[in-house]
Design brief:
The complex is a heterodimer of chains A (273) and B (373).
Chain A lengths: L6 H22 L4 H6 L1 H11 L14 E4 L5 H11 L39 H14 L6 E6 L6 H12 L5 E7 L2 E2 L2 E2 H4 L5 H7 L3 E6 L3 H13 L5 E6 L22 H10 L2
Parallel strand pairs in A: 1-2, 2-3, 3-7, 6-7
Antiparallel strand pairs in A: 4-5
Chain B lengths: L8 E5 L3 H12 L4 E5 L2 H8 L6 E5 L10 H12 L5 E6 L4 H10 L3 E4 L4 H32 L4 E2 L4 E8 L7 E7 L4 E9 L3 H18 L7 H15 L6 E9 L4 E7 L4 E4 L5 E4 L17 E4 L5 E5 L1 H5 L9 H11 L5 H16 L7 E8 L1
Parallel strand pairs in B: 1-2, 1-3, 3-4, 4-5
Antiparallel strand pairs in B: 6-7, 7-16, 8-9, 9-10, 10-11, 11-14, 12-13, 12-15, 15-16
Helix pairs in contact in B: 6-7
The chains are: A alpha/beta (273), B alpha+beta (373).
C-alpha cells in the first residue's frame, strides 16, 4: 500500500471506498450503508495516513491498533483493509455470505488481521483501552484508535470505560465518535439524546476535539493534536452525515440498515463517479 | 430431494460449525450421507477406517492462519494413509498457487468460499460419479476374476479340499486351480503373482491361461508343466513380474504326492499323528528367468493326512500395530482345526487372519486345504 497525507488523494480513496461499500451491501442484499458512509473519511485517513501498520506484516507487535466499535459498519473497514492489501478487493462482493471472510460483523476468525471481533455495541472502547494500556506496560509506541457510533455511546459500558481511561491516564488511545445523529430507525435526539456531549466527555476527564468528520484536513489535524495530548485520553467528536456522499441516503434514518436496490445503486454510483 | 439407491458418503472437515452445518444440510438434502469433523485429527481418525466417496476439507483451522498449510498437510496425510476418497479443498483465502499446491499433494478439486451451492453439488456429483464408475468397473473385474477360478470346494475324488481366496483389493494377484487330469491323477496349484491390484490380476489371468493349457497334458509329473509355464510366462511379462507357485499332482491310487515349490511359502503337510512336514521351495520363481530347473519332491499321503497351501498374504497380514500374523499362528490354527473338514476349518483360519489384520488385508491371501479320505 502507498500511504499519503495528501487530502485530495485521501478524498479519492474515500470515493473508491464508498463505491465498494454500496456495491457490497447491494450484492449482499443486506447491511448498513448509512453508518459506513459517515465514517469513511475517518477510517480512510487513519489507515492511509495516520496509523503505523504494515499489511504485509499484520502481527508486527508495535503496529497501531484499530477497533471498529460499531461493528455493523464493517463495509467501510473491509473496503479500506482490502484497499490497503490485507484482504482481496475482488471478494468484497461476497460480503455476508456463509464461508466468506467478509462476515456481517468483523470476525477475526476469518480475517486474522482484525484486532478484535466487534459489533456487540459498547465493548470496543474497553477493548481499545486494554490494548493501549498493554502497549504502555510493554513500552511499545503502539497507539490504539477506536471508532464508536453515537448510538453506541448510549451503552453504559462506554462510560465505565471512559472513567477507566481517564483514571489510568491512557493517553495512547484515541476514541472517535462518528457523530452522525442517527441510530437504528430514527434520530438520536428522539431516542435518547447525548447532549451535552462535549461536556460529558470533558467531565469524564477526556481531551475533547470537536470537528467536521468529512473534512479530511480537520480529521488529520485532530489526530495530530491527539498525539500531543499527554496524561489523558482523547476523544474526537466527528460531526458527520449518515449516508454521506449519496444524496438520497444522507441524513435519512431509512439507510441505517437497508440495502440499496440495483437501480438505487446505479444512481448512487453515478453520484460517486 | 432425491435419494439414490447407493447413497454416497461425504465427509466434511471444517472448524466453523456454521459451515459444517450448511454443507451437511445441503448435501443431506441432495441424497448424500454426510459426516462432519471439526479438524484434521478427528477426520483422519475416521477416514482411515471408513470409506467416503468425497471429502470436503477446509484449508485453515488454527486461528490466525491464512496460509493453507494445515490443509496441505491434511491432504498429504490422507494420501499417505491411502484414503481413497476424492479430496476437495475449500478456502476463503485461496489463490491459484494454493490450489496448485493442493492438487500436487493429491487434492482432486478446489472450491473457493463462499461457495455456490449448485456449483458445489456439481463438483461433488462429478467426483462421486467418478468413484462409482471405477467401482462398477472394479466390480466387473472381480466377477471376471472369479470366473477364472474353479469352484473352491470339492471332494468326489480321493481328496477333500477347500479354498479361500481373499483379495487385498477388489481383484487379486493370487491364483489357485485344480486339474482333473488323466484318470487317477488330481493336480492343483496355488500361485502368487508379484504386485497387487489390477496389474497383478492381469498377470494372474495370463498365468491361469498358461496353467490350463499345459496342466492337462497327458503327463503326471509337475516338472514339464512348470517348465512350459515358466518359459511362456517369462516371454509375455516384464522382467520384474514373476509368480511364486506350489504345484502338485496326487496319484490317487498310490497316494503319492509329486510337488514342486517355486519360491512359494512352504506347504504344510500334517500327518495323522500330528507331525507336520514343510514342503519347502525347491525351484526358481516362475517367469523371472528364461532358464528354469526344479527338483520334484515326492511324499506319500496317508488316510487322514492334511495339506495346507497358502500365499504369503496369510502370514504377512499385519495388525494395526504392524505385527505380522506369522507362520506360528497359522501352524497352530492348522493343528487346532485338524478335527474339522477343510470346508469347516478354512473359515475359522480366515476369520482369525481377518481379526488380526482389522479392516483390510495388506496383501492378497489364498488358503488351500486338502485332506485324504
Amino acid at each position: 500500500m502507498t500511504k499519503t497525507s495528501n487530502p485530495a488523494e485521501l478524498a479519492a480513496i474515500s470515493k473508491t471506498v464508498r463505491r465498494h461499500i454500496l456495491e457490497m451491501i447491494t450484492a449482499a442484499k443486506s447491511g448498513h450503508p448509512g453508518g459506513s458512509l459517515s465514517a469513511t473519511e475517518l477510517v480512510v485517513t487513519l489507515f492511509f495516513d495516520i496509523m503505523k501498520h504494515d499489511p504485509a506484516n499484520p502481527k508486527w507487535s508495535d503496529r497501531d491498533r484499530f477497533i471498529l466499535g460499531k461493528g455493523h459498519a464493517c463495509p467501510v473497514l473491509y473496503s479500506v483493509m482490502a484497499e490497503c492489501g490485507y484482504t482481496p478487493v475482488d471478494k468484497l462482493n461476497t460480503f455476508r455470505q456463509l464461508g466468506s471472510i467478509y462476515q456481517g460483523h468483523p470476525d477475526m476468525r476469518f480475517i486474522p488481521a482484525l484486532e478484535a471481533s466487534t459489533g456487540s455495541l459498547g465493548q470496543g472502547l474497553s477493548v481499545a483501552l486494554g490494548m493501549a494500556l498493554a502497549a504502555r506496560f510493554n513500552g511499545s509506541p503502539s497507539r490504539t484508535f477506536v471508532v464508536l457510533g453515537d448510538g453506541e455511546i448510549q451503552e453504559g459500558q462506554i462510560w465505565e470505560a471512559a472513567m477507566f481511561g481517564a483514571f489510568h491516564k491512557i493517553d495512547n488511545v484515541v476514541a472517535i465518535v462518528d457523530w452522525n445523529k442517527i441510530q437504528l430507525d430514527g434520530f438520536v435526539k428522539d431516542i435518547m439524546p447525548l447532549d451535552p456531549l462535549v461536556d460529558k466527555w470533558t467531565s469524564f476527564g477526556w481531551h475533547v476535539i470537536n470537528i467536521d468528520g468529512h473534512n479530511i484536513e480537520a480529521v488529520q489535524k485532530a489526530f495530530h493534536e491527539a498525539e500531543t495530548v499527554k496524561g489523558k485520553p482523547t476523544v474526537i467528536l466527528a460531526n458527520t452525515i449518515k449516508g454521506k456522499g449519496v444524496s438520497f441516503m444522507e441524513n435519512n434514518p431509512k439507510w441505517h440498515g437497508t440495502a440499496p436496490s440495483k437501480d438505487e445503486l446505479a444512481l448512487a454510483l453515478k453520484e460517486l463517479a | 430431494m432425491s435419494v439414490g439407491q447407493n447413497q454416497a458418503r461425504i465427509f466434511v472437515c471444517d472448524d466453523q460449525m456454521e459451515v459444517r452445518e450448511a454443507l451437511r444440510l445441503l448435501l443431506k438434502s441432495n441424497g448424500y450421507i454426510v459426516e462432519c469433523f471439526d479438524g484434521p485429527a478427528a477426520l483422519i481418525e475416521v477416514a482411515v477406517q471408513k470409506q467416503a466417496s468425497v471429502i470436503l476439507l477446509d484449508m485453515n483451522y488454527t486461528r490466525d492462519t491464512t496460509s493453507g498449510e494445515e490443509g496441505l498437510d491434511l491432504i498429504a496425510a490422507l494420501r499417505e494413509q491411502r484414503v481413497p476418497a476424492a479430496l476437495i479443498a475449500m478456502t476463503a483465502w485461496g489463490d491459484v498457487s494454493l490450489a496448485v499446491q493442493a492438487m500436487q499433494r493429491g487434492a482432486s478439486d478446489f472450491v473457493e468460499k463462499p461457495w455456490n451451492n449448485d456449483r458445489l453439488l456439481q463438483i461433488v456429483a462429478k467426483w462421486t460419479a467418478a468413484g462409482q464408475v471405477e467401482d462398477r468397473e472394479m466390480a466387473g473385474a472381480r466377477r471376471v476374476q472369479k470366473s477364472l477360478l474353479p469352484n473352491s470346494t470339492g471332494g468326489e475324488k480321493a481328496l477333500r479340499y477347500a479354498c479361500r481366496f481373499l483379495p487385498a483389493r477388489e481383484v487379486s494377484g493370487d491364483y489357485y486351480d485344480f486339474f482333473e487330469k488323466r484318470r487317477g491323477h488330481f493336480g492343483f496349484v496355488v500361485a502368487d503373482v508379484s504386485g497387487k491390484g489390477v496389474p497383478a490380476a492381469m498377470l494372474m489371468a495370463n498365468l491361469q491361461a498358461l496353467f490350463r493349457s499345459h496342466a492337462y497334458r497327458d503327463d503326471a509329473a509337475p516338472e514339464p508343466v512348470l517348465r512350459a509355464v515358466n518359459a511362456q510366462f517369462h516371454e509375455s511379462t516384464s522382467p520384474e513380474s514373476f509368480a511364486t507357485a506350489f504345484y502338485a499332482d496326487l496319484d490317487e491310487a498310490s497316494h503319492e504326492l509329486s510337488y514342486i515349490n517355486c519360491g512359494h511359502p512352504p506347504a504344510l503337510l500334517r500327518k495323522r499323528n500330528g507331525e507336520v512336514k514343510m514342503l519347502e521351495s525347491s525351484a526358481l520363481v516362475l517367469g523371472a528367468f528364461p532358464f528354469w530347473s526344479a527338483e520334484t519332491g515326492r511324499v506319500k499321503m496317508d488316510e487322514g493326512d492334511r495339506l495346507l497351501v497358502y500365499s504369503d498374504g496369510a502370514v504377512e497380514a499385519q495388525s494395526a500395530t504392524g505385527e505380522e500374523f506369522g507362520e506360528d499362528r497359522l501352524l497352530e490354527l492348522f493343528q487346532n482345526t485338524a478335527h474339522l473338514s477343510p470346508q469347516e476349518a478354512l473359515p475359522e483360519i480366515e476369520a482369525e487372519i481377518q481379526k488380526h489384520s482389522g479392516v483390510s488385508l495388506f496383501d492378497d491371501c489364498t488358503l488351500f486345504m486338502a485332506s485324504l479320505r
